[in-house]
Amino acid sequence: MKLFYNAQFHTLREEDDIIFALLVDDKEYIKETYTQIPKIDNVEKIDLNNSFVYPGFIDTHTHSFEGGLYSLSANLENAVNLDQVFEILSQTKPVSGKIFAFHFDENNVREKRFPIIAELDKIFPDTPLILRRVDGHSCVINSKAAKMIDWENSLPSDFNGYLFKRANGKASNWFHKNLTDDAILQAYHQAANIALQNGHTVVHTMIGDTYSDIKHYNLIKESLHLFPIEFILYPQITDVDIALEIGSPRIGGCVLADGSFGSHTAALLKPYSDKPETSGILYRSNNLWQNFIREAHKNNLQVAIHCIGDAAISQILNCYETVQQEDPKDLKHMLIHNELTSDEMLDRMAKANVSAVMQPMFDRLWAGKNGLYETRLGMKRTSHTNRLASIYKRGILLTGGSDWYITDLNALKGIDAATRIHNEKEQLTPYQAIEIYTKNAAILSGDGNRFGTIEKGKLANFVCLDEEILKSRSIKDIKINSVIVNGKQNLF
Predict the structure, then answer these.
(1) What value, to the nearest 5°, has the Cα angle with vertex 62 and ends 68 and 241?
(2) Is residue 216 assigned to a domain?
(3) How far apart are CA 295 and CA 181, in angstroms?
(4) For the CA atoms of 405, 478, 489, 183, what is the dihedral angle to 10 degrees?
(5) Residue 8 Cα to chain centre, angstroms
(6) CA distance 492 to 488
(7) Same-domain status, 172 and 286
């Protein structure tokens, strides 16, 4: 057994519940907690060096495969012009014979445009290449990739490399699927190590093509014991029979009801402020969603759907309301992202017993004066984005995620952002912000009896910090001393 001591453990059972030592048994579970350091012989004693300890962080929405893969590839986040983009690409090494680039934002480069296919062909004429926009909803490919992908419809004769909507998904899925098992496992190991270093003990991850192909789901399911953190898997498909066949308790993830604000494809009830000729796109029909959600609900599968604009959120919420009225269940179906909402929609969410899986860093990146939200939506609608406090106060299950690779896999950044939402009325308290990355996240996956709080009978999963979150002036900059996963200490 192990005695962890010399620390202030914030259990998250209640806001002021603090202990000062705990005993972990040989099966990795907390055997006992103590309000003072006990005198116990014949145990391994681990000094946590005056750390402030919290339950291990849980990220409830990531694309960990892509995040791990892209972290081994070309990051274009800081490129200020296309020449820099081309220089970074030219130094990038292939993974399984393919070139990956991510975090590109055409608004941040001097030319205010994407590279075109001819420019990419000059660098990689014989190696398939994909360059993905920062939000993941569009991309550019080179000629080699265009020739290798089996398209549903022929590309236009004047194709310049740019893809969005379904063609974007087709291209990215081809790149992600056509990798060796070793490359796939390498990406997940990379993701797990990044998660661990940032204080996570559990990470939810999406796997699938959003239709019926679960891609490498079975490979990862069989390999879960190999990773230093716990992955919770989402078969990112709409085929209920396949989800049942593989024994998953959930289905969906970034199965898209709409697109993104950045690409003007998030579906809105009123037109975009900067492009009034469009209100975005509802990707699928009401009938398709209702049939899918009804079938999943009937089979006790928790559903997760990507919906960003208020029109898309309304579309999916209508379906959730219908199945709950027909057959009430406590499945906590998910609204992923849930960025633009009215009071009336939030009241309906509370009544329908859905959950909101949200990314506080979206506000940090895209809110504020002259930010993406204000440009696309105007000031009034921007005040109705990322309504964390309004959701929390209504008793809706709210959890925090990163949407990694879109934002960093870093719960401290997310907690910090949640306490500093640009609309002050929507800011969470530090304690509430911790809850959405710990206790609430465990409830979402049905694991509240295994982790999410520090208490007797639960897994010994916790993160040790050199500063108390509740009193920090800069939560995102707090240093992580170590992370304990299933009773095993990982030092940094």
Answers:
(1) 110
(2) no
(3) 32
(4) 20
(5) 29
(6) 13
(7) no
Do residues 297 and 398 both lie within one domain?
yes
* CATH classification at residue 123: 3.10.310.70
Q: Are 54 and 89 in contact (CB under 8 A)?
A: no
Crossing angle between the packed helical segments 343-352 and 310-326, to the nearest 10 degrees: 30
Q: How far apart are CA 147 and CA 128, in angstroms?
A: 9
Written as six digits, the tokens of 485 are 């996963």
User: Is the same domain home to 84 and 172?
Assistant: yes
Tell me: do 8 and 156 sit in the same domain. no
**What does the pLDDT read at residue 153?**
87
Measured CA to CA, the distance from residue 301 to residue 292 in angstroms comes to: 11
Q: Please state the rounded mean pLDDT for residues 29-54.
A: 95
Amino acid at 113: R
As a whole number, mean pLDDT of residues 410-439 equals: 98
Give pLDDT tens digits for 347-356.
999 999 999 9
pTM for this prediction: 0.90
Q: How many residues does the chain have?
A: 492
**Sequence-separated (6 or more) residues with CB below 8 Å from residue 14:** none
**Same domain? 440 vs 465:** no
At 386-411, the pLDDT tens digits run: 999 999 999 999 999 999 989 999 99
Distance of CA 442 to the CA centre of its chain: 15
Structural domain span for residue 159? 70-177
Stretch 88-105: mean pLDDT = 94
Residue among 91, 94, 87 nearest 144 (CA): 94
The single-letter code of the amino acid at 249 is: P
What domain count does the chain have? 3
pLDDT of residue 222: 97
The dihedral built from the CA positions of residue 376, 378, 381 and 387, taken in this order, carries a sign that is: positive
